[in-house]
Amino acid sequence: MVLVQPVPASRNADAAPRPSELLALARNSSTEARQRLLLGVAALCDSSPPSEELSSVLGEVFLTLARRAEREVRKALSERLAHAEWAPAALVNLLALDEIEIARPILECSPVLQDDDLLRVLIEASLEHQIAVARRPGISGRVADAVIDQAEPAVLMALSTNHSAGISLEGVRRLVEHSRRIAALRGPLTRHPRLTEALAEQMYQWVGTALRQSIVARFNVDEQALGAAVNEVVGGIVHPPPPAKAAVDQGERDEMERRLINKLQAAGQLRAGLLIRAVREKRLSLFAHGLSALGGFTDEQVRRALSAPSPEALYYACAAVGIDRAVFPTLLAELRKFNDFLPGDQGEPVWLRGALSQGSASRAFKALMAASQDQQRTVV
Predict the structure, then answer these.
(1) CB-count burial class (<10 Å; 0-12, 13-18, 19+) for 42
(2) Cβ partners under 8 Å of residue 37, min gap 6
(3) Residue 209: what pLDDT?
(4) CA 46 to CA 193: how far, in whole Å?
């Protein structure tokens, strides 16, 4: 059995070990000693947080020991570091991507995790990890938007009950849209502090009697007047149709998806989340028409970006319509799987340079397309 106590049983398990004890453990190469050393150093840092200069050295020590530590030791370490501001970022990120019972304390509490770290977890980790991120107190609007973009029902449910999350009014509106198809969202949203009267009236169309009464009571409105107003609301969110049958040729399918995008845009319901879902469903035409409409680009520009030897143009186009740069690498990898491995991988990954505003990204995309077109004319 592996011992996880950093100090002998005769001493308080939360007390920092004496230097002589750590020295003895460091000289012992056994697995048990290495694990006790790991927790012992953590206890020592809790009692006396390391200086900035020492932090980098300790980070390497922690990573080296943690990678070889057994499950119960990593779990104990995660619980100890969950609230530690001094914890090495690399170690915290390592634990955040560990199995969920180890990762949960870090994901829910660690002050070391930043937005980019949480976005990485949303992309790379399991559904349980995503739920832990959505429940994390005080997550930013950027992280909340990424959760909503992914549209996983269980994760949306966790977000809708997290009243401390920095969800924007637009984010709440999108959650309300999702509640049409995800019944579990309706109750939490009727109690959400950021729900507005206008959004409550929209929800009134599809919730049950009990929740309708909750809406009427909360917003102190006339139920008969609200019922009349609901009857005048245009009928709901337009959902993408199921994938076309094999009998429908490519030209017809392309035209159907172009009309769908136009309809969504006219209704004011075209969002970047639809593009992410289109890629997941391997619907290239829907993605291309949606990107063109959202960004104000021509179909030809988008087609060239999708077949370019470098992903740079596509990244600018996606950033211009609000797809987060942390999401783009995964979207690109999925897109290449059903688009003949295009765009190619020439050039540097420009998304690592830093975030761009949507306006700057749009200008960069159009400039790149213009330069590419001029180059083609010169060759011809």
Answers:
(1) buried
(2) 22, 25, 26, 65
(3) 81
(4) 37
pTM of the full predicted structure? 0.53
Output the six-digit token pair for 126: 């399991």
Instruction: Write out pLDDT tens, residues 29-47.
Output: 556 655 666 666 666 566 5
pLDDT tens figures, 186-237: 999 999 999 998 888 888 888 888 888 888 888 876 666 555 545 544 344 3
Residue by residue, DSSP assigns 99-142 as -HHHHHHHHHH-TT--HHHHHHHHHHS-HHHHHHHHHSTT--HH
User: Integer distance in angstroms from the first to the last C-alpha of the chain?
Assistant: 74
Rounded CA-CA distance 11/15 in Å is 7
Distance in angstroms (rounded) separating the CA atoms of residues 70 and 38 = 11
Instruction: Residue 122: name the closest of 154, 155, 91 by CA.
Output: 155
Q: Is residue 356's pLDDT more than 80?
A: yes
Structure-token pair, residue 118: 């949480």
**How far is residue 357's CA from residue 322's CA, in Å, rounded to a whole number?**
9
Q: Which residue, 189, 169, 171, is CA-closest to 179? A: 189
